[in-house]
């Protein structure tokens, strides 16, 4: 794989919101999906890591202040997560499915909804999709309040992970 030379000026990391279509929905194991969003991170490094490794890069290999913000956000929406570092989890999210091309994380909230995170690597990109199923109307209200922060956080996490990888690659050359 060809990577940018360390002396080249790095372009702004490209993260793009994409439509949640039937192909993406097929990865979810939820019976009904009431909310879905998806973002692509365009990167030359997509093929260098498995989908699970990408999930760990994006959710676990983050600066301390980002880790604190993630945990606080997940506590606010009462996600039932395991301790970070627990087997068969990524950042405390239980792994529902894993193979080299995609990993699906799944948990529930005490507020009455289930959520899944899909990490899927493609030739020149990494996809992060979120799927949510509400079990009662109050759960939708909780999610609707959290949604703007969620969408901003996803974009920031994706862009920051690519920037960290590019910085590491440049330092190693």
Protein described:
There is one protein chain. This protein is α+β, with helices and mostly antiparallel strands and 173 residues long. It contains 4 helices and 7 strands, in the order βαβααβββββα. It has a 7-stranded antiparallel sheet with strand order 1-2-7-6-5-4-3, covered by helices on one side. A hairpin with a 3-residue loop joins strand 6 (113-121) and strand 7. The longest helix has 36 residues, at 137-172. The radius of gyration is 16 Å and the shape is globular.
Question: What is the fold's blueprint, element by element?
Answer:
Layout: E1 14-18, H1 22-25, E2 35-42, H2 51-59, H3 64-76, E3 89-90, E4 93-98, E5 102-109, E6 113-121, E7 125-134, H4 137-172
Antiparallel strand pairs: 1-2, 2-7, 3-4, 4-5, 5-6, 6-7
């Amino acid at each position: 794989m060809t990577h940018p030379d360390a002396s080249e000026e790095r372009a702004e990391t490209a993260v793009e919101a994409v439509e949640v279509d039937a192909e993406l929905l097929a990865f979810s194991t939820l019976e009904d999906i009431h909310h879905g969003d998806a973002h692509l991170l365009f990167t030359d490094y997509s093929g260098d890591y498995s989908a699970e490794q990408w999930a760990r890069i994006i959710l676990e290999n983050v600066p301390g202040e980002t880790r604190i913000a993630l945990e606080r956000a997940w506590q606010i929406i009462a996600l039932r997560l395991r301790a970070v570092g627990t087997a068969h989890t990524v950042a405390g999210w239980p792994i529902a499915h894993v193979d080299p091309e995609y990993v699906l994380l799944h948990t529930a909230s005490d507020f009455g909804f289930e959520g899944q995170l899909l990490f899927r690597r493609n030739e020149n990109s990494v996809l992060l999709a979120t799927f949510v199923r509400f079990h009662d109307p109050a759960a939708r209200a909780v999610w609707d309040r959290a949604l703007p922060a969620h969408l901003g956080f996803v974009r920031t996490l994706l862009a920051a992970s690519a920037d960290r990888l590019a910085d590491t690659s440049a330092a190693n050359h």
